[in-house]
């Protein structure tokens, strides 16, 4: 199970990265950190700087075909930057086009909205994204985890860091773990 974790160079919510990453490792999977730029990703704990993490490869030099699934951690700045990056948005769209399962938590569905992959899908997110998701044709629910198996790809979403246990328990089996 090879899993892409896609994030911007800064602004990812650290716990949403590290707990999901650990869940993949514990399931015997191989997580890989993709970003829009090489180097390191600056994580945050809410609005304060936290640790940095090494980028394995840029999204522009990556192929969705090489992964069994995609995880999009949140943080406010992270998905806002990703949705402005053409290669990141194209990678997300390609994962859906290949029917790869995608897991997104907190503010990460902003990137899904930009990729135009939420139409007629049921998902959850941080509550402030509710209107964005509905305006993009999605069905927003206020639940700990939402698993939508509508074609072409399974979408697993959660609202916030407090939902991480349920989020990881839902996405790992979908990724083959």
- Main beta sheet strand tally, sense and closure: 7 strands, mixed
Strand order of the largest sheet: 6-3-1-7-8-12-11
Helix content range of the residues, please? 25-40%
Estimate what percentage of residues fall within beta strands.
25-35%
Distance between the termini: 7 Å
State the secondary-structure class. Answer: alpha/beta
Q: Can you tell me the residue ranges where pLDDT is under 50 for at least 5 consecutive residues?
A: none
What gyration radius follows from the Cα positions, in whole Å? 14 Å
- State the order of secondary-structure elements, H for helix, E for strand: EEHEEEEEHHEHEHEEEH
Number of strands: 12
SSE blueprint and pairings:
Blueprint: E1 2-7, E2 10-13, H1 14-26, E3 30-35, E4 40-45, E5 48-54, E6 57-58, E7 69-72, H2 77-82, H3 86-97, E8 102-105, H4 109-114, E9 122-123, H5 130-135, E10 139-140, E11 145-148, E12 155-158, H6 164-174
Parallel strand pairs: 1-3, 1-7, 2-4, 3-6, 7-8, 8-12, 9-10
Antiparallel strand pairs: 4-5, 11-12
């Amino acid at each position: 199970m090879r899993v892409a974790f896609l994030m911007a160079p800064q602004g990812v919510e650290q716990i949403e990265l590290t707990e999901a990453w650990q869940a993949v490792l514990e399931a015997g999977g191989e997580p890989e950190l993709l970003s829009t730029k090489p180097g390191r990703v600056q994580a945050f704990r809410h609005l304060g700087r936290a640790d940095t993490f090494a980028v394995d490869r840029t999204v522009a030099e990556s192929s969705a075909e090489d992964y069994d699934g995609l995880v999009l951690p949140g943080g406010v700045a992270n998905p806002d930057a990703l949705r402005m990056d053409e290669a990141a948005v194209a990678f997300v769209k390609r994962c859906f086009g290949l029917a790869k399962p995608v897991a997104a938590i907190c503010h990460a569905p902003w990137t899904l909205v930009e990729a135009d992959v939420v139409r007629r899908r049921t998902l959850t997110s941080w509550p402030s994204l509710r209107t964005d998701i509905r305006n993009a044709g999605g069905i927003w629910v206020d639940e700990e985890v939402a698993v939508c198996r509508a074609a072409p790809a399974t979408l697993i979403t959660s609202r916030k860091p407090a939902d991480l246990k349920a989020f990881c328990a839902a996405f790992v089996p979908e990724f083959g773990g």
